[in-house]
Amino acid sequence: MLEDVTKRLETFGYTVTENDEWLIGFIIRKVDNHIKLECNIKEIPQELNEIIVDMAVGEFLLEKKSMGELAGFNLDAVVKSIQEGDTNLTYAIGEGSNTPEQRLDGLIAYLMEYGKNKLVSYRCIKW
Q: Which among 60, 98, 92, 65 has a CA at the least distance from the CA of 79?
């Protein structure tokens, strides 16, 4: 699972360091326990692995963002238009698009919430 989370983070442009491994392991256990408690199960089915990975990545990015440690993450603004003659560069900020931080927050929210509705299929009744 650690390898999957690490690779998923790399797809978003974050380079995992040796210092991140303990935090990632902690977050994986946290998400794992959350799902087990939510569904009242002792083992997590294979079908939920991708959900665990995305939730762990979202938790990790939120943790790093809150500590101000997302230095390796690209938050540059998206360029809307470039004009060559007399050099004019327009960023797509404030014109119906989100700021880089808002896009990051949206990504984190998506990762943390994705698949929660699928947990219902694995929920067991608690007596």
A: 92
3-state SS string over 3-50?
HHHHHHHHHCCCCCCCCHHHHHHHHHHHHHHHHHHHHCCCCCCHHHHH
Buried b (16+ CB within 10 A) or exposed e, 104-115: beeebeebbebb
Q: Which of 69, 30, 70 is nearest to 52 (CA)?
A: 30
Q: What is the dihedral of CA 58, 59, 62, 64, to 10 degrees?
A: -110
Assess contact for 2 and 83: CB atoms under 8 A.
Answer: no
**pTM to 2 decimal places:** 0.76
Q: Which two tokens stand for residue 1?
A: 């699972």
Q: pLDDT below 50 — which residues of the chain?
A: 77-80
